Amino acid sequence: MEKENIAVGLDIGTTKIVAMIGKKNEYGKLEILGIGKSKSLGVARGVVNNITQTIQSIQQAVEEAELNSGYKIKDVVVGIAGQHIRSIQNSDYVSRSNPDEVISGKDIQLLIDQVNKLAMLPGEEIIHVLPQQFIIDGQSEIKEPIGMYGRRLEASFHVVVGQAASIRNVVRCVQSSGIELSGLTLEPLASSDAVLSQEEKEAGVALIDIGGGTTDLAIFKDGIIRHTAVIPFGGNVITDDIKEGCSIIEKQAEALKVKFGSAWPGENKDNEIVSIPGLRGREPKEISLKNLSKIINARVVEIIEQVFSEIKSYGHEDPRKKLIAGIVLTGGGAQLKHIKQLVEYITGMDTRIGYPNEHLAGNSSEEISNPLFATAVGLVIKGAENNSRSAIKIEKEIPLKNVQPVFRVEKAPEIEAVVETVEVATHEVKREAPERQETTSSTITRGFFEKYVEKIKDFLDKAE
Predict the structure, then answer these.
(1) Phi and psi of 204, rounded to 5°?
(2) Which pLDDT tens digit goes with each residue over 99-146?
(3) Over the chain, what is the mean pLDDT?
(4) Three-point CA angle 368, 168, 155, nearest 5°
(5) Are 222 and 198 in contact (CB under 8 A)?
(6) DSSP string across 266-277
(7) What proportion of the chain, given as a percentage, has pLDDT over 70?
(8) Are 387 and 40 in contact (CB under 8 A)?
(9) How far separated are the first and last CA of the chain, in Å rounded?
């Protein structure tokens, strides 16, 4: 029996940890087999700050995914994010010894290996080396050099760099949870695989993934990744602002944001008020929805302006770098009411909410199509591309030929005989019982009337 190509993605976020198991169906679409979620307790702004709690949260998510899917997870593709992530542009070249041979994948790998040896700042290491475009003997703007002739192969690269210690902490947490690591992927790249179409990547698009601890940016143009950035603010900062501004606890602030929050203050009327229960018998608090929207709006504007400054630094105002497909919002923060309109107002760019259903099979549940799971779906897609076998099916049924029977019915006729006797006895009892019951009740009734009649007779005799 051929082993299934099963991929597993592990999204270690600031607010939640998601383990997702999936496989590609016959149409090339992703079929999600199981999903596990747990509250992320040891991560702040995309960086692990408590190893023990993170391990426990990972184990909880993995166990839930295994339970839901019936598969045992062996290894995972993990998303990397956090404020320590930065990207640089770099160019390098190799001189080929035999220009009469066509350029192959080995030549490109040689060039990538050369870039991987770049000197980084102390404590940093390279996560991704992503080719932008190639130049062969002076001929520029070549997207696919394989199969071409040339002596000098040159390329410009988008290099993603992160703190080595932060990356090692993530690796350690995963391995200590009892599973292996099959790959590391930058989270905005994973999200882009889940929510963007190839047409958008060609036309030019900026993906903004608003998570709990960070907001990730990935810019594509001509089908190639051009710029990435991680802003160290997300939905949790909005919750903290509500908590401070309204003097309520974090749980209430989060519930307010999700149920009544809006990024556009003009949408709420002055007389719209929500009542929050007081703590320990204190009076309930009344909070104006207009004021709530103003608090949310101030922080969202700050996050979007920081992201927009990154889009400007990429150079989107240059006609050749124009992002025709505009902006795609995803992540948990994209569910905030009127955030699409606010982003369009600040940036002047067309905006849509990105749902991770671009590559999902048609029978996928509505829950998985939530922007909240964009990164997790993207990580599963990355794993599936590598034809990974990251999980094996748990055999629930044990073959009978391998099991020794405790007893056989045919070897115990006395048991059958006892059962038959009990059944016969039961029927007899049932047949006899009503007769006895009838006799008893009639005797009792008769006795009562006889005594009653005698008493009347005595009474009449005495009266005479």
Answers:
(1) 110, 115
(2) 899 999 999 999 999 999 998 889 999 999 999 999 999 998 898 999
(3) 85
(4) 80
(5) no
(6) GGS-TT-EEEEP
(7) 84
(8) no
(9) 107
Please indicate whether residue 99 or residue 406 has the higher confidence score (pLDDT).
99
Q: In what order do the strands lie in the sheet with 6-12?
A: 30-39, 16-24, 6-12, 75-80, 180-186
Handedness of CA 454, 460, 462, 464 (dihedral sign): negative
User: Tokens in use for 381?
Assistant: 């897609």
Question: In angstroms, rounded to a whole number, what is the distance separating the alpha carbons of residues 416 and 423?
Answer: 11
DSSP 132-161: EEEEETTEEEES--TT---SEEEEEEEEEE
CA–CA separation, 200 and 440 (whole Å): 90
Q: What percent of the chain is helix, strand and coil (3-state, nearest 5)?
A: 45, 25, 30
Confidence tier at 450 by pLDDT (50, 70, 90): low
Whether pLDDT at 271 is above 60: yes
pTM above 0.85, yes or no: no
Helices and strands (DSSP H and E) totals, the chain: 11, 20
Q: Which residues contact 103 (CB under 8 A, 6 or more apart)?
A: 96, 136, 145, 146, 147, 148, 149, 150, 153
19 φ, ψ to 5°? Answer: -110, 125
Both structure tokens of 238: 């909005």
Here the tokens at position 153 are 């192969």
